[in-house]
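Q: Here's a chain of 276 amino acids. Please give me its 3D structure as tokens.
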Amino acid sequence: MESKSERQFAVVTGASSGIGYELAKQFARNGFDVLITSEDGTLSEAAKSIAAEGGMTTEFRADLSTPEGVEELYGHLRSLNRPVDAVALNAGVGSGGDFARGTSLKDDLYVIDLNVRSTVHLAKLILRDMVERNEGKILFTSSIAATMPGTFNAVYNASKAFVQSFSQAIRNELKETGITITALMPGPTDTNFFERAGMEDTKVGAEKKDDPADVAKAGFEALMAGKDHVIAGSFSNKVQATMAHVLPDTTLAELHRKEAEPGTSEKVNRPEKVRQ
């Protein structure tokens, strides 16, 4: 299939809801046709809503936590016979709880597969095409969590630290090209992340969160400006990032414990819960 649209073309992963959904809307209303992808059953509903912002929105359902899912998505993109001008690698998930005594190995490895492995895999494929054309933009959804050890969210924070380091490294590798790499670093955002991660009974899970539309707008503007990263959301996120540069990891790990330990929310009773 060959598109005759004169608009630019963007791809957004993890776009059925939350930050990814809002990023897709940003692209659509700013002159891009958009392909959104997720394994979520609500992808079609998201596509209809995004299409109302302008341009053409298409969907492709894929499980990016598997190598096969990444290859299927990339194969579909190649079949469109259309250059990808911008990509938001946003798909990600968390798994909250005590690593040794609470979270399951299956959940922990799923976080790594989706947040880390699929990000590297898809970036490798898409960047080869961008390098060949010497143009393109990639937005990696990192996190303010990348700046500190994630007590009771150990694998998730480590995965985002990887994404942050990875994005900044390849940005430098490509600095003499027409390709730009930007890392979006949101703080706690009002999405289904905390529910999916089993963190609704934590202090951070119960506190007020940033609007995903505001986070996406900051990410999109930083991407278009070619910035290396942007800390999106509330001022406290910027304070946290600054603290992470000066405080030792032991202190940061203890601070994270106060936010993410199960049962620390004042809005719920402490559960006797072990995830299987």
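Q: Can you summarize the key feature?
A: The longest helix spans residues 105-133.
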